[in-house]
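Purpose: get a first structural picture of the assembly so the mutagenesis plan has something to point at.
Setup: two entries, given in the order below. No constraints added.
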Amino acid sequence: MNQDLLTRYAQIAGEDAVEQLLQLASPLKGAHIVHVNSTRYGGGVAEILHSLIPLKQALGLDVTWEVITGEEEFFLVTKSMHNALQGFSTEIQSRALKTYEETNAQEAERLRPLLEEADFVFIHDPQPAPLIRFIPNRKGKWIWRCHIDLSRPQRSVWRYLRNLVTRYEASIFSMPDFTQPMPHLQYIIPPSIDPLTEKNKELSEKEVKKILSRYQLDPHKPIVLQVSRFDRFKDPLGVIRAARLARKFAPLQLVLAGGGAADDPEGEVVLREVEETAKGDPDIHILYLPPDAHHTINALQRGAHVVLQKSIKEGFGLTVTEAMWKGKPVIGGDVGGIKIQVVNHHTGFLVHTPEGAALAIRYLLFYKDKREEMGRKAHQFVKDNFLITRHLRDYLSLLLALKLGAHERIELETWTG
Amino acid sequence: MIQESMAGGTGVEVKASPDCPSNNHVNNGEKCCFYIKDCALVSISTGKKAYSLAELLDQLRTIHPGSIYHHFWSRQLRPSFDHPEFHNDFAAWAYYDIHDKTLAERLNIIDPQDFNTLEDLRQELIDHIEERMDESEFLPWAKAKAPFYFVRSQIVVLDTGKRIHRPQELARAVASMSLGSIFYHFIDARRRTEMGVDDFRAWLIPMEKYDHVVESLANMDPYFTTLSELKEELVNLFSSHFNGGVKP
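Result (structure tokens, whole complex):
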């Protein structure tokens, strides 16, 4: 089973990539690694852990994944904290912070034996960050993995969290832009996609066509697609404007596919605005999808001619990576992690306005050869830089660095393969 | 070339294999085989950034030497595309974010191999930036489109267990190397080997009968190509010299 999984990754990422992982993992055998986050399903962190844990286990590592639980009030405060850390003005009452700490204290009691004995503990995002305070007799090294954009946090909330996370041996951010001054080592590890999952695995043309026809998409009209939550920061209205400007010159149908608005009051408002703007337009398809519609999203991305991610603020933007993996050039907003994925004029275009997006759509629909060439480059770029195997290679290098000392150069003594 | 100085002189740890010291390929005066190694690089934020040329200059005076290494050398193992137009991150930032083509050109031509230590390289950068700032009244304070983030890196070196026993095996061996191996043996070696050359030359030179191959290797420009292209170029070179042009 383990070998089978490694073989499947080797077929995609290359045998040398898997061989490198085996070598990096070898000195870590026997160490117990624990990951802690706050949800088993839904969201990018859980998605990455669902792939990372089996892959680590396949390499012979002893890994455990724990999820902290809490009452609704706990998740309300962590959501406010999340928003504040991403720069939105939010007030968090001291009572709410008490709930945050008490929940973590309770979870620390439940997880104490595991966390005290673990050799390495990865704590993902702010939700379980206070656990470290309640495990004073910890034996191993603790790493705080921050998946969010901390570049312009609300200062009072960051000051509070900073007091907690500076206790860790190291932290990890997706980009240097997201870091803040801290006394410990801050590693830069971009996220990744897993090519073997339902969302990214190969699909037959027949399967793709079946899904496109299920949503009554015209098989003869090029598809321009944006997959994202209905969120103002994803600029869905700007995408509609771009598509309408572009179709004066090139026939197309726009698909806005997303979900997750049901439990987000603002998301519902944005969805209504989008529906109102697109009302009566037969070439704009708004698909409200459940969070587990991975297969559908896969087919839509594969069936699309051009993919947009016209965000005006973005953390990393894994939907960009997903589309590029499927050989699609991406027209993206010139923000956040999109900037390191979309190499302007090579793997897509970086734009600043709906007008810029419209021009890029026209260009890509007009020049089929160029579109296909950029798509091939996009696929290769993801293969080289944003697959789960690279992500794990970075994690293992970090663990070795923490284990052997933070030298600039760590040379493993002998071949351990 | 002084190995420790170019590595920043900070906590360098080299553990040699028992039967072949590091990558010198020599054991008690006898030639030995070529140890194929691989490496993985992980980036670390220094927490320092610059929003203008004046700030860049200030930070450059004190930044960790590992960061200067990173912005010159490690970029080849990071996401990049096609023919790298800029050979170091400082030049790319001057061009794209400060929009000063003059400074970008001057920084771009700096060859880090010309400097014995990272401190010398740091001074060269500072000299160029100061000179350019003297030429323009407004340039030092022009706000960059995006800040320059000072990053450094840790490199983990692995022994693949694979060995090359004869130069005739080079083409086949290089063809199956990872890009991490290419970086380690062809780029990183230049600041690691006593002669300041890549590991292939360091292995071939003492054999004293492959001068033409050594010369061809010396003529390969490691800056204008990606690692994939370098790998292909190396395979072509070794095939043509050792295997009558037949590629593995």
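Chain A touches chain B through 47 residues (CB under 8 Å).
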